TrEMBL record:
PANTHER family: CYTOCHROME C OXIDASE SUBUNIT 2, CYTOCHROME C OXIDASE, SUBUNIT II. Its cofactor is Cu cation. This is cytochrome-c oxidase. It comes from Misgurnus anguillicaudatus. One of its GO terms (biological process) is ATP synthesis coupled electron transport. The keyword Ribosomal protein does not apply.
Length: 57
């Protein structure tokens, strides 16, 4: 279900993270899919830019 949830990292990572608080925002699947597609597109554009920079050297 969508919402903001609070907890301790130790619930996910184990006892060594017992003093680390976490915040998780759960969103509808459509929002997550859109968000991840935007990040993938940005990463692809950054990769192309880096390749172009290397070609100029």
């Amino acid at each position: 279900r969508p919402g903001v949830f609070y907890g301790q990292c130790s619930e996910i990572c184990g006892a060594n993270h017992s003093f680390m608080p976490i915040v998780v925002e759960a969103v509808p699947l459509e929002h997550f899919e859109f968000w991840s597609s935007v990040l993938l597109e940005m990463a692809t554009m950054e990769e192309v830019t880096l390749m172009m920079d290397e070609d100029m050297c």
